[in-house]
Amino acid sequence: PVLPEGWAAEKDFKAVGQLTHATDRNIEPVGPHFLAHARRKRHKRTFSEDDRI
Amino acid sequence: MSEEESPAQRVAIGISFGNSYSSIAHTSGEGKAEVIANEEGDRQIPSILSYVDGEEFQGTQAKAQLVRNSKNTVAYFRDFLGQDFKSIDPTPCHQSAHPIQHDSTVAFKIKDTAEGAENTVTVSEITTRHIRRLKNSASDFMGKTVNAAVITVPTNFSDAQKEALTKAAKDAGVEVLQFIHEPVAAVLAYDARAEAEVADKIVVVADLGGIRSDVAVIASRGGMYSILATAHDYDVGGTQLDQVLMDHFAKEFIKKHKSGGDPRENDRSLAKLKLESEAVKKALSLGSSANFSVESLSNGLDFTSTINRTRYELLASKIFAAFTRLALHAVEKAQLDPLDVSEIILAGGTAHTPRIASALQSAFPESTTVLAPSTSPTALNPSELAARGAAIQASLIQEFEAEDIDQSTHPMVTVTPHLAHAVGVLCISGDPASGVFRPLVEAETPVPVRRSAVIATPREGGDVLIKICEGVREIKVTKPAPKPKPAKDEDEDDEDDEDDSEEEEEEIREKAWRVENVLAEAALKGLKKGAKVEVQVNVAADLSVQCFVREVGGKGGVRGGWSAPKPVENGSI
């Protein structure tokens, strides 16, 4: 969409809302992507930290 | 360090342990999963044990004993493991050794020694013997002693059942590294292929077995799987299809031989009829006609007959419809629409039946891919999926310490918030009513997650507003105007009768997005003509979001974020 006239925000970014609450579910502990996720979660790493290793 | 438990010494395989059949698989040097054939050349090994003069037979040899030695033959015992006698259904065992109550568990009375004395053997001992044989077959094939395995179990297998299976396997010298769910193993078997691409999709796994059928609806998100709903049916399976053929051939036999009597009324005749009917059913999955022939079926009379596939499909149409109903029911249970399903994976022996695949394909929209040998050239063998998935998982974790595996599979790790709604970008117009929502992160995606996409901007370039919103999927039903009919209620789906499916053809159902909640706005100024914009969304584990917007090929960009919804905040702000 085209930027409306007179739209302004700090650093051109405006947060309006928040995510709706999520539902807690079980991930199946299977597959390479899960194992990577488990590793990140156990070592409390983020995606970018994980990429660096 | 003991030799057996050290991860370096581990030789792990994948085992799919079923009521009717079991399979074993390993991963070859190149990381490809392969199902191992036992010494009889079978990849699908019947889960049957039989004793003749103290000698133990398993697999196909034991299955043949169902005719002459049914009382000392144990079959269909997997679901009895770790169960209370009162809670089991002994129906499948009518033609073999009957289960009896023994202390708190289930046992069988069989003559398993050379002396011919009747012994009471618990179901867990039977399982141990079965797993030991599977282990030996795999060890012979691989040339090294197998001592660990990943075993597949149904999604409704209780902890007590898992515990009993762990113990039975341990007694057979097999360390259970992990139990994985059968439908998830099937998805993994497909996703682990070299040509497979990890995508965000909803997969329905229909595991059609011998004496039970299970359907699971799985959200596959970036290679991670969450089960949304499951449905189990113990009344439809391969046995019902066998029954259809048994009744058909029995009636033919009676018509032809007036003096022969009903082969279903004599135990031995019935066993012969059943074995041959199963063979005919398998032949009909491959060819368009099959031969039925049994020597001395009843009263010493031989019987030969043929049946073609069309006839068989007609006879079994009710059962085929039940499979479709079960799949639709599971989708409904997950509060989804058939339109949301992008793939149906057919697993289990009964899934070889071409008609079941085509019935599912017509019950689901054209956009849904049915992965079965008859509908997709890239489909894998449905009987092998669970064992393959288990083998892949085994190769992934066999180097791990047991403690590592325990910690990784702990609920602390597996229970994760999943997004309730899709997060995406509003295109075309800033007004939610006329804009088009394009999802970046699908609903039911576990967090943390990072997704990015490239979107087109207005042709003339200039200043652009990027609006990030939450969207809800809706089913838009448009009906051709001339025939006004009462709107179809979603609840009626499970009693999908013929009128219903006719109605469905008249209306056009499609997926549409409704913008629920605007999350953020970002401005990109002075874009070139026809520029594309890259949007990246990063949802953290606490549901706070960072996003980053920039012109493709351009410098800079806009970065911003917002916090998590209130009650999950930990008070640090």
UniProtKB/TrEMBL annotation, chain B:
Keywords: ATP-binding, Nucleotide-binding, Stress response. InterPro entries: ATPase_NBD (IPR043129), HSP70_peptide-bd_sf (IPR029047), Hsp_70_fam (IPR013126). It comes from the Eukaryota. GO terms for cellular component: cytosol; nucleus. CDD domains: ASKHA_NBD_HSP70_ScSsz1p-like. One of its GO terms (molecular function) is ATP-dependent protein folding chaperone. The keyword Nucleotide-binding applies. Residues 477-510 are annotated as: Disordered. This is Heat shock protein-like protein 70.
